[in-house]
Amino acid sequence: MNPLNKIIFLSGFLASGFLLILLSCALYNNWKPIIVIFIFLVAPLPNIIANSIENNRDDFLTFGNDRGNNPTPLEDACKYITGTFVVSGIALPIMLHHTHLIQFGAMVLSITGGLVVYVDIILFIWFFEEDEDDTDELNF
Amino acid sequence: MEQQQHLFKFAPFIKLPKSAKLRSIGVYVAGALFAVGFWTLLDAAVYSRKVNASIVHVTFTDWIPFICSVIGMLIVNSIEKSNLFGNDNSFLNSTGTNTVWAARVILFFGFSLLAGGLSGSFMVFILKYLIKDYGFPTLGMGVANIVCNGCLMLSCIILWISQNIEDEYSYSLAL
User: Fold this and answer.
1) All residues at 6 or more sequence positions from A132 whose CB lies less than 8 Å from its CB, including other chains
2) What's the rounded Cα separation, in Å, for the pair A111 and B173?
3) Are B170 and A85 in contact (CB < 8 Å)?
4) Which of B40, B43, B51 to mutate to test the interface with A (most CBs of A within 10 A)?
5) What is the ipTM of this complex?
6) DSSP one-letter code for A59
7) Which chain B residues contact residue A71 at CB under 8 A?
8) Which stretches of chain B sit within 8 Å of chain A by CB?
9) For B169, which of A69, A84, A140 is closest by C-beta distance?
10) Where are chain A's structural domains?
11) Separation between Cα atoms, residue B111 and residue B157, nearest integer Å
12) Which of B16, B8, B14 is nearest to B170 (CA)?
């Protein structure tokens, strides 16, 4: 699978995710679920930031960034924040539906769309990280 | 070095599984649980403002246990745990005993705040909702408080456990 196909496939996938979220807002004429897009767009950022910081850091004494596979506290904290963001993106529409602020259909559409957007970003990172080096680290 | 790895006497029997992936999953699950707790309480607050028909509303009182739990959780998980066992790396820091005592006292405050948050949520539930014989939609706001603080405590426990999971290759490069 060459990179061009991957990019086309992923962009179509991403567009369908955005479409679902926008539909959930526009069909019911209630633009509250639009926040889900921002939550899921921010969700992968902590891991990306942590990875770039940790890969550029030289350790005292070892002069390498090989810590024997043991994650640093920064990486742990970023994973924690990622988990928080993902569940927030799912919990926000549920809360809005439970408090009668949006319809049931809008809840389902925005959760599905948000998960599609998130999975798309993860797939994007995963596809193009695979080429560089074989890291089988579990980064969502 | 090997001796000080064990926390309990019966360490071989309760050996934690060693895997970097399991550790990652544990940290993610802990973060997810924190979000579940936070959104449960926020849901109760919005519900009370928007839908609630009764005269009882979620006020700042209901948020105090949550704030206690969050502060406790921050403290507990910010402590460097190697400080607790003392004398381990005393050749690196000259003020060994002071650090150990400070770590123990601060950790004690952290756990007290966590436990205080959970029992405070029970107290709010009983004093504000249960004792006045409210029906269920109103009672649900108190239950949400307990669920929230329970989730925070569980999140803290899972984070603590998964931070103690060592990778099996982590000693391969030890001097």
Assistant:
1) none
2) 44
3) no
4) B43
5) 0.81
6) P
7) 20, 23-24
8) 20-21, 23-25, 27-32, 34-36, 38-39, 42-43, 46-47, 50-51, 159, 163, 166-167, 169-174
9) A69
10) 3-55+70-130
11) 11
12) B16
Query: What are the tokens at B96?
Result: 């060994």
Q: Distance (Å, rounded) from C-alpha B72 to C-alpha A78? A: 19
Note whether A83 and B28 are within 8 A (CB): yes
Q: Which two tokens stand for residue B145?
A: 């408080």
Would you list the domain boundaries of chain B? Answer: 19-163
**Is residue A16 scored above 80 in pLDDT?**
yes
> Is the sign of the CA dihedral B74, B79, B80, B84 positive or negative?
negative
Contact B117/B69 with Cβ under 8 angstroms? yes
Rounded CA separation B49/B43 (Å): 10
- Across the interface, whether the CB atoms of A68 and B29 are under 8 A apart is answered no
Token readout for B67 is: 């704030």
Q: Which amino acid is at B110?
A: G
What are the tens digits of pLDDT across the range B131-168? 887 877 888 888 999 999 999 999 999 988 887 776 55
The pLDDT, as a whole number, for residue B109 is 92
Grade residue B38 by pLDDT with cuts at 50, 70 and 90: very high
pTM confidence score: 0.80
Could you tell me which of A31, A37, A30, A32 has the C-alpha nearest to residue A14? A37
Q: Which CA distances in Å does A8 have to A12, A49, B47, B129?
A: 6, 26, 43, 56
DSSP string computed for B103-155: HHHHHHHHHHHHHHHHHHHHHHIIIIIGGGT--HHHHHHHHHHHHHHHHHHHH
* B-interface mutation test, from A42, A88, A102, A107, most B Cβ less than 10 A away: A88
